[in-house]
Amino acid sequence: MVEKIKIGWKEYGIQCVESSNVLMNGGMECYGEILHDKCLIRLNVSNTEDQMRATVVHEILHGIENMYGIDLGEEVVTKLGNALYTLVKDNPKLIGGLISPQ
Question: How far, in Å, CA of 29 to CA of 7, rounded?
Answer without folding.
Answer: 25
